[in-house]
């Protein structure tokens, strides 16, 4: 079994849902050495998250942002954690809903995503800054 690990820092992005699949592949050439395995992508932050979803129609990502803003509104007077701004506590809640990692099968040195699937960075802050990921792949 081969095991590889690679940190990746993503540039700052505006709030929203961003496809990062090609950045993952480009930053992790060791994937090509794995015929059958798994890739875990882990985000080292509590106010951004990761998910896998539609990679073709950008309106899907716009609808994600609209839905999460409705489901977890800013400026709720009942939030106790508000030292970092009105988007901070909602960002933590959204990140908890979506999660901090995704697992993707590797097949013949490539990510075995479906035809219409891509990995999203879900940026829940207005000014979240660069985001750090840890990529870990293993397999034969």
Automatic annotation (TrEMBL):
Signal peptide: none
PROSITE patterns membership: UPF0047
Top-rank taxon, per record: Bacteria
A Pfam family the protein falls into: YjbQ
Coiled-coil intervals: none
Cross-referenced NCBIfam families: TIGR00149_YjbQ (TIGR00149)
Similarity annotation: Belongs to the UPF0047 family.
Official protein name in the record: Secondary thiamine-phosphate synthase enzyme YjbQ
